[in-house]
Design brief:
Blueprint: H1 7-12, E1 15-21, H2 28-38, H3 48-59, H4 64-69, H5 71-76, H6 81-97, E2 100-107, H7 119-137, E3 140-148, H8 154-163, E4 169-175, H9 187-195, E5 201-204, H10 210-219, E6 224-227, E7 235-236, E8 244-245, H11 247-254, E9 259-261, H12 263-268, H13 280-285, E10 290-292, H14 297-300, H15 304-315, H16 319-332, H17 337-363
Length: 364
């Protein structure tokens, strides 16, 4: 017995984060600074503490659409190269302080061109910030460039991902409201990425059901699913000792398609009723390729360590469970096999072994 992991101990664990939005993780103090510098006067308050509270309360509505509205303020102050570099640098610093050793952070370049920046300038500024933050704080950060599913620029963004894939862009994503905007609207971009041997994930199965997941996998060829919570709709007898998987759920599990789950965010947007009732408990028990993520650290008021701590409290998870989630994430990352293996065997497993050993010593 090693005891139940505490939040303090979890912060020391080497963690991996695959689903985190750059414009969803700003420090409130930074938002205030950038708004002042840019002459942006749309903030609900300029007090950092009150601003943090406003973001979490506005996001906790049970509606994905309402949740997404909060981004007008973070995106609004991220319209210069200096601002983008600062936000990326601070993101790397904050994640490293939380014990994250590898992260994939996503953002939509098309949202940061209002003052005249080109898509390339946006990407280069973010890459510079992450490179500097990574060097200073000892974290590896890969970026995902995201296309907005309600717009028509996905091919441009896909080409951007390929153009910068040797400079730190590790993949592509589409995001935004799912209902009415199926991933198949961007099929040409996904076919291009496949021809270019590029990696991509798709937001699917969060606010819309199984058809979104099916299209993302079978039509578009997604490597991973952003959220994928609604895959449980294809599982019956969920409360029994032997749940029954439908064809799609079985396919997702058999093919080891990673699910980028974000428990706190999913509760906020109404994709799950509570952490204790989140499908992650069932999916972990059924050995789906589940990963744990933050989605938007500012809006959800959560760090990756806190996400893990919530799961420990809800499901009684121990160190072996947390290591399982972490290794799942590292296996599913969009960097090379050798790099993933080095982090798993050289950082993650030794780090968790030390924590488990320390816990044993504490109890004896």
């Amino acid at each position: 017995m090693t005891g139940q992991p505490t939040l303090e101990a979890i912060r020391r664990a080497p963690k991996v984060l695959l689903h985190d939005h750059l414009d969803g993780g700003l420090r409130p103090e930074t938002i205030v600074d950038l708004a002042r510098d840019a002459g942006y006067d749309g903030l609900p308050t300029t007090d950092p503490g009150n601003l943090r509270t406003w973001f979490t309360e506005a996001s906790d509505s049970g509606s994905l659409e309402r949740y997404l509205e909060t981004f007008q303020h973070t995106v609004g102050v991220m319209q210069s190269q200096e601002a983008l570099r600062r936000v990326a640098y601070e993101c790397a610093e904050d994640l490293a302080k939380d014990g994250v050793v590898y992260a994939e952070v996503r953002y939509a370049p098309e949202l940061h061109t209002r003052t005249g920046l080109s898509l390339d300038q946006v990407v280069e500024a973010v890459l510079e910030g992450f490179a500097e933050g990574g060097r200073d704080h000892g974290i590896r950060v890969g970026t995902l460039v995201t296309a907005m599913r309600h717009q028509a620029r996905s091919m441009e963004i896909a080409e951007l991902a390929v153009r910068y894939r040797d400079a730190g862009v590790v993949g592509f994503d589409i995001a935004g409201a799912e209902a009415g905007y199926p991933p198949t609207r961007h099929l040409d971009a996904f076919e291009y990425l496949q021809r270019e041997n590029a990696h991509f994930t798709i937001h699917a199965g969060e606010a819309f059901g199984l058809p979104s997941i099916w299209q993302a996998i079978q039509w578009c060829g997604a490597d991973r699913l952003g959220h994928g919570v609604r895959i449980v709709d294809d599982i019956t007898d969920r409360d029994s000792a032997a749940p029954v998987l439908g064809r799609l759920a079985a396919y997702v599990r058999d093919k080891r398609i990673p699910l980028e789950m974000c428990p706190t965010s999913n509760v906020q947007t109404g994709a799950a009723k509570s952490i204790a009732e989140h499908p992650i408990g069932l999916l972990r028990r059924l050995h789906f390729r589940v990963t744990v993520n933050t989605d938007n650290r500012l809006m959800s008021g959560v760090s990756l360590s806190e996400e893990f701590a919530k799961l420990v409290a809800a499901f009684g998870y121990g160190w072996d469970d947390l290591q399982w989630f972490t290794v799942n994430a590292m296996k599913s990352a969009f960097i090379g096999f050798d790099e993933r293996l080095e982090l798993i065997n050289g950082v993650i497993k030794p780090g968790f072994a030390q924590l488990k050993w320390t816990g044993t010593r504490t109890l004896t």
